[in-house]
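Quarterly update, task 2.4: FE2/S2 (inorganic) cluster-bound model.
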Amino acid sequence: MSHASLNVEIGRIRDLAPGIREFSLRRSDGADFPVFSGGSHTVLSLPLGERVHRNPYSLLGDPSVRDTWRIAVRLQEASRGGSRWLHEDAREGMRLDISAPVNLFALNRTGRRHILVAGGIGITPILSQARELARLGADFEVHYAYRAPEFGVFADELETLAPGRIHHYVQSRREQIEFGSLLAGRPLGTHFYICGPAGMVAASLNAGKSLGWPDSHLHSEQFLAPSGGEPFDVKLALSGHRFSVPSDLSLLEAIEQQGVDAPYLCRGGACGQCELEVLGADGELIHHDLYLSADERASGTKIMPCVSRLKGGCLTLNL
Ligand code: FES
């Protein structure tokens, strides 16, 4: 479980490209941040009117820098408020609660070579991974794909970090990563890491698997934003709470609004930490997560409330 535990002040805000902003964060009490490892994220609690939205953002700075954390936020077209608040309402000097760092996308320290791939804003965890590998003197390369030259917002920082090891793919120039050739013929002990859009992640993992890469050497991170949907009712069997989930809240957010403590880590359908047991569903479970297997979905007994919901009447949970 990872609940808000650090109060921070927003430091410098930089507009890096249209729709992409970087934020520096400092602890309000002036203390150092905890150490984090490359690929970690933090969960920001964002004040949206009377509601609090909790969104995960990767820590992109140097893990060894303890006085400042950095995140970059892309404005989501279909933002339910979180990224829009950060783009339109956040100001330098404001205070926020954030969680301690969590790493669901850690480097394999025994890897002999590391291939890092980023698509768009997926560069943020890759950047901190690259910093960690550079500090360790590890053998690595970075493949960075983005829409147009102005969206390669961390290209210069990467070049400084690892000169000659950064490969750029600019979509507006019709450049794209060919995963078959990128992953073919790699020596034993090579690890592959990717963060980017769903289609890109799936294509890379499929290419790796068809080339015989073991699952243990293919690492990906993909957080899904909770999508809205039709309202539905919920009954919590243990606590006795009954409430409705409105169309613009996730099931997890609605549970939290009741003051019920529910587990989570990624809040993006990837980690499995928020899994809840379904005791009854008067309708169809709409699974949006990346975690449950097809059999688990078919059983109708589990749900990831951070991204999934019910289409129908009432959902009864063992909570
Ligand atoms: S919190 Fe990670 S899957 Fe829901």
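Highlight for this quarter: The CA atoms of residues 3 and 99 lie 6 Å apart.
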